[in-house]
Specification:
This protein is of the alpha/beta class. It has eleven helices and eight strands.
Length: 317
């Protein structure tokens, strides 16, 4: 029987592995933040949840993103499936996206890849493979991998979750799409930034990465300072939004998300950290505000882009 590992040794070995895998940031310490920041080259992306309530359908969503001035989209897999089910061609959709000068930087799917039940997990991997196939056909690069199916009961073995994430990454290797461990602040598992990062680190896969979210980090109780530990190879996309002072974090929900800069999130701190981690990061506007869903979709998309850029300009100059 192996000897139990001490807490000190565990932290030491895990950190060493993280540095070797490129997950943790060893270049930019807190003191480095006082030096000149890198030039931001963020790519602005529209997560279609932001205009989901208008029920435009895939084609009109793509058109709205392009007309509003975004350079990328983050569609929902269910919307892509709906487009195909109605006779739409993925080849035509890819051409439309390309012709409009857009890229599909990521997509939102909900395959239960992380669950304990082996049969359900196998089905989840098959669902993820199917999702990735759809995404790859329209030129998609990444897929959100939230802890779907493991949100209501705490106690998930994070080492087991890391093994399951590796299996998901291996499916991604086959399909040419990178799954990103997504932080879900309302979940009982992977709700904190550190838990998601742990799963990515311990997967031992070179493409392991996380998909953080301003709202979810706040909802989970994690501190934004922890973002400084991450590196360019571990964060490619980031969900951008803001949150109000009321309701408090314990009661806040997805519907309470607001445009960047309209809430109380420490945007200057967040932006300075993110540009230091990865100045080429994809900023994807992800909102679920029913008030915005009642408005014209193009107006909402334009407002969101303007406010994202204003937050970056105010923080970084």
């Amino acid at each position: 029987m192996n000897k139990p590992i001490s807490r000190r040794r565990f932290i030491s070995t895990t950190t060493t592995a993280a540095i070797g895998a490129g997950i943790l940031n060893t270049t930019h310490t807190a003191s480095a933040m006082h030096h000149k920041l890198p030039k931001a080259n963020f790519k602005y992306c529209l997560n279609m949840s932001t205009i989901r309530g208008q029920e435009l359908g895939m084609v009109k969503e793509v058109k709205a993103a392009a007309k509003a001035g975004y350079s990328a989209i983050e569609p929902w897999i269910r919307t892509i499936r709906g487009y195909v089910d109605q006779g739409g061609s993925l080849k035509d959709l890819k051409k439309r996206i390309d012709d409009l000068g857009l890229t599909a930087e990521s997509a939102i799917g909900f395959a239960p890849w992380i669950v304990d039940d082996p049969e359900e997990r196998a089905k989840g991997l098959e669902e993820a493979k199917s999702d990735m196939d759809l995404l790859a056909q329209i030129g998609g690069k990444r897929l959100a991998a939230p802890p779907k199916g493991a949100t209501k009961e705490a106690g998930l073995d994070l080492l087991a979750a890391a093994e399951r994430y590796r299996a998901l990454l291996e499916v991604g290797d086959e399909m040419g799409v990178v799954p990103q461990v997504e932080v879900w602040g309302f979940s009982k598992n992977l709700q904190r930034l550190g838990q998601a990062v742990f799963v990515a680190i311990e997967s031992g896969h070179p493409k392991a990465c996380v998909l953080p979210d301003i709202y979810h980090i706040y909802k989970s109780g994690s501190d934004f300072t922890g973002l400084k530990m991450l590196s360019k190879s571990s964060v490619h996309a980031f969900h951008i939004n803001d949150y109000p002072s009321d309701p408090p974090w314990e009661k806040i929900g997805d519907k309470d998300r607001v445009y960047p800069g309209d809430g109380i999130a420490p945007m200057k701190q967040i932006m300075e950290t993110l540009v230091t981690i990865n100045p080429d990061m994809v900023f994807s506007l992800e909102l679920f505000n029913p008030t915005y869903w009642e408005q014209d979709a193009l107006k909402v998309a334009k407002t969101g882009l303007r406010k994202m850029k204003a937050v970056v300009e105010k923080a970084l100059g």
